[in-house]
Amino acid sequence: MSHDHPQLSDHPEAPYLALLARGAPAEAYDRPALLARADGARPEALARLDAAKRLALRVRADLEGRRRREAELSALFETAHDLAGLRDLDAVLRAIVQRARSLLGTEVAYLSLNDPTAGDTYMRVTEGSVAARFQQLRLGMGEGLGGLVAQTARPYVTASYFDDERFQHTSTIDSGVRDEGLVAILGVPLMLGSTVIGVLFAADRHPRVFAREEIALLGSFAAHAAVAIDTANLLAETRSALAELEKANETIRNHSAVLERASEVHDRLTELVLRGGGVREVADAVSEVLDGTVEFADADSAQAAVLQLSGSDGHALRHGADWLAGVSAGGELLGALVLHGQPGLDPVDRRTLERAAMVTSLLLLARRSAGEAEQRVRGELLDDLLDAPGRDPLLLRERAARLRADLEAPHVVLAARIDGPDAGSAARRTAEGRRIGSAAAYLATTRHGLASTRDGGTVLLLPLGPGDTPAEVARGVAKQLGTALREPVTVGASAVVAAPAATPPAIATAYAEARRCLEALRLLGRSGEGAAAQDLGFLGLLLADTRDIAGFVERTIGAVVAYDRRRGTDLVRTLDAYFANGMSPARTKEHLHVHVNTVAQRMERIGRLLGPDWQCPARALEIQLALRLHVAAPAMAP
After folding, report:
1. Rounded to an integer, what distance in angstroms lies between the CA atom of residue 221 and that of residue 215?
2. Comparing C-alpha atoms, which of 94, 89, 95 is closest to residue 76?
3. In 3D, which of 636, 460, 620 has the Cα closest to residue 548?
4. ∠ CA 412-414-416, rounded to 5°
5. Do 578 and 596 contact (CB within 8 A), yes or no?
6. Cβ neighbour number for residue 245 with a 10 Å cutoff
7. Tell me: the pLDDT tens digits for 448-499?
8. Are 352 and 342 in contact (CB under 8 A)?
9. How far apart are CA 536 and CA 134, in angstroms?
């Protein structure tokens, strides 16, 4: 006899609160429902448990995201603190590489520096490396992925190093990389002004797709490394100047005052970062130290446009009576610090302004991370479209606009899943869900769509270009995801959703259709392909929510119907009689009361219209179904 526990009915969230409190793994959240089902809990109790489970998993994911972002910001703040008290350049660079490896979760991280004297580049710091030849590499300029980064001064990433032809492969580099076993590599430039002085790398020994946030984070560490090197060079220059000007006491005092002022601003900026200060506080602190007025101009301002055109890359430049320093992260210009009232700045004060701009970029990144966390708490846009179709359409449009997605345009919903060995393993499905989710998110970003991890795979909402069909988009996505992940990816597509923002409930319906198409492809042995229901013949007719009977009839026997309409012939009736009489020409001619040669001539004409395989079992079944639907069409019409 089934029964409910009072505790379960009254407090379905209690077991999940306990799981959250002890930091249990995600798979542990299935246990309360399994136990309740084993105890014979009623459906409504199980439904409440399922709702509590979904909420708990969302809270758990948010907590994990917050912990990850807190770790990233803590590492960046610790790095800024190391720079403020710079004593040992090698120690600071090692700390930066170690933190980059830890936060990105890669197996290896390393940093190379250019040697202008020798005309090559060499490994300066490595973390996680096991191959001696790799650690001692010296490379010619312009070679390998690092050479591409140095040439373009932009980040580059490869999911499979040896299959990537964008950069120049050499036997020396390939041998070192092969010894180390590296596959996926991300490299970001170390910049001093507009000059690349080295490259910071993060790498794995297996294929991996690096997310945009990971590229920006490594770019921030590279900026810190460049500052450390620049600061070390500056200190060396200062010591040399002090030695040369030993007898010029006044000059020494002036220079010491400049350094003291720089140290003061570094201490104040570090304190601001550690206690979570704002952009306005940074501007006020620098204004006081530099004896001028500093203000922040956003990315749309005229000052930021000047920096964008100049390509200063964080190096302060003079613009009229003002000084401008770019505030950027990961190659994205976030704005500018503008110093008024100081037309003449010495090099140290210029570097002070540049460092203040870097601290400002850290604060803006922190603000952006907080905004993204808040957005995830309220639910991702695609999840809302799927799970909460009753939300305000105006709000959906505004959120989509911030993501550069146009939900007024025609879209297609796609369900995708990796189809590799041991696909039934729960652990493997979880890992595959993360991998395909990351790759799908990158694809959706580049195509101004949306993506979310769901049901052991991923769901995408992508816009249709002029002339695109759902089937073509599905095939393209299957190929792109399969290439990125180096595993077969099966993709099922829905019918066209004309305007998602106007009809949010249509998204969930389209996703259900895309999943049915995905499962049909797997059952048909077409794993690794992409298709829409229209590609699957009468099976697609059963799968599609639109039930496009006219389209199915047109695709199957449309040529014969059109021929009868143009010529006034009777091929459709002959074809129907042919199947009704067991595909026997003799019985068909008796049924139609015509000569057997007439039947033969009509069959020959039908064969030319339908193709040579029209009598094979699969085609014949579809043709007979299309004939029945064609005959029944008038009766089925509303």
Report:
1. 10
2. 95
3. 636
4. 165
5. no
6. 14
7. 888 888 887 889 999 998 888 998 999 999 999 988 888 899 998 888 888 8
8. no
9. 51
